[in-house]
Hints:
By secondary structure, this protein is an alpha+beta fold.
Amino acid sequence: MKFFDLSFRTAYAQAKELALAQGQIPLLTAGTLQTEKRADKHFVYRYRYDASGKRVTEYLGPEDDAGTATKVERANAEISEAAIVAGYSRDLRKVGFHSTDNSALVTVAALFNAGIFGNGGILVGTHAFGAILNELGVADTSFAMTEDVDVARAQPIQIAALPEGGLLKLLGETGLPFHEVPQLKRNEPPTSFKVRGKKLRVDLLVPAKGAPYKTVVVRELGAHATGMPHLKFLLEKTTQSVLLGRDRIVPITVPHGGRFCVHKLAVYALRGGSNPKSRKDVAQAALLAAAMSQDQEFMLHDAIDAMDKALRSKAKAGARRAIGLLEDDYPEAAGLLAALA
């Protein structure tokens, strides 16, 4: 495991500060301005693209019109600002910071624009793992990053204005053809949304109350979620981060790194040791433990201290597997997890 040097971590901090100052993330590319001649007159257009690759044309007006000049000035400012953000993202991705593809990035941007993150919604799963690695400054990982976007609801989300049609309609604002994924059990409402022809999938999760894996209504989003065991622990402590894309950077809320680590150990047992994903859970937990053991071991101490008896019991098998991965090269990290084994 390697860490980014100070210059790259400083660049990441600057990019994060810039991204967190954004009120809205454009769902379209910055695009270009073009002046075109029509019947001896010149008119100005802005050409942009949505996440599906469809060109979107915005007519700004006659070239010699004062109102058009104001629109052109505003558009040029937006294009310049977008270029600065894109430059940061490009440079960080080039040196190995975790990023995601354009479709997933725009999907997360649509959720951010709706006010979901920071108001009860938290990004979990693979993209949260990658964001936490970026926060820790980890420079190398062999983990394959899925396209899934996992959104957890810690509490009722204070959303300003949800379009009629609920979460599905909101996701459709990306320009991507999202549809509801039918449940295996007939008549069960869907808790996932998928893009036709792509692997991109959005899953909505909530902490289970009572029996796990039940479908739970999320009224403020006009949708349903799956109730997950021990998810409440993961969502009780969070941090602000950002998700890097090809040309945009989106502010997100992710779980506390220590809690993400030990929760992954519990997920190993919940999936069952024969599940291929369970091996990934342990490997991710081990990498996070190794990273935090270098100079942020307090994050693991805090997370372990906050675990209740049931969660500790569920994390025991995963902790033993993670210790086996860590004890030769990262004995300090193995020692930190020993309290759970």
